[in-house]
Amino acid sequence: MSTVQHEVDERTNLISSNKFELLLFRLGNDAVNQRSELFGINVFKVREIVAMPEITAVAGALPHNLGVVNLRGQIIPVIDLPSVVGRTPVTGLNIMLVTEFARSTQGFAVESVEEIVRLDWSQVLSAESSAAGGMVTSIARLDGDAEDTRLAQVLDVEQILRQIAPSGNKDVDSETIGAKLKIKPGAMILAADDSAIARALIGQALDAIGAPYMMCKTGKEAWDKLQALNANALAEGKVLRDKVALVLTDLEMPEMDGFTLTRNIKQDDRFKGLPVIIHSSLSGTTNEDHVRSVGADAYVAKFVAEELAATIREVIAH
Hints:
Number of strands: 17
Number of helices: 8
Order of helices and strands: HEEEEEHEEEEEEEHEHEHEHEHEH
Distance between the termini: 48 Å
Radius of gyration: 20 Å
Largest sheet: 7 strands, mixed
Helix content: 25-40%
Oligomer: single chain
């Protein structure tokens, strides 16, 4: 486990090139086939990996919440990840993944940690309709296009947290989100996010500020749509900015990540001047440095609707 922890620390500095690091782990057997499948989470979200510490049960805790641990003076809630996705550990909850994203820190209890693999996002396919109750965003083909490739289910941690702690969910408040967006008539916002929950929240925020939008599930879908919109604009004697006011993109997405999408836009003369906002649960100075390196116009962390709206207004105004 110490080797895996070292790799987490070392590889979080990976410079984006449509590749990412996936931490693989097991949660136990499924109820139907009694098999232990591989699951994954982006290394960027993992702060550290520790042997399961002593957990203090909290009175009145919600289902799937094991309690809290004291990790070097920080009180961290611990989530029973196997129970969330319907798995039964064979050897117990032995490992805790400490994750940081979406302005929060939490521990996920898992049975075992396997390895870290470096993948191209093209090896990852969308899988919203998986049997894990919509908590799997994609399926990673660990060995590429090989017929017998190993598969890993990439978990949607935003969906999991929203499901297990519904009282903490805050929908968009049209009273506090602020003024309507001033946008060129006929233009819209092109948004890309692979999480169904994130798309729903983004849609609520954009509706609240009166912004027309088109939603995509992957960076590649957004890139293809952008090229098609540009071709349509030219055919109508217009420019792309007549149709697209800005692009709002997540970072982690199947087929093409947000870093690559942003870099493609900023390096293509056809899309010169088109603003891009990166909207992601990934935080920290490393990711913010990457955002600047690919030329994004702004970065906003998920998910506070008022901050997203304010950032969109600011970028549009410039």
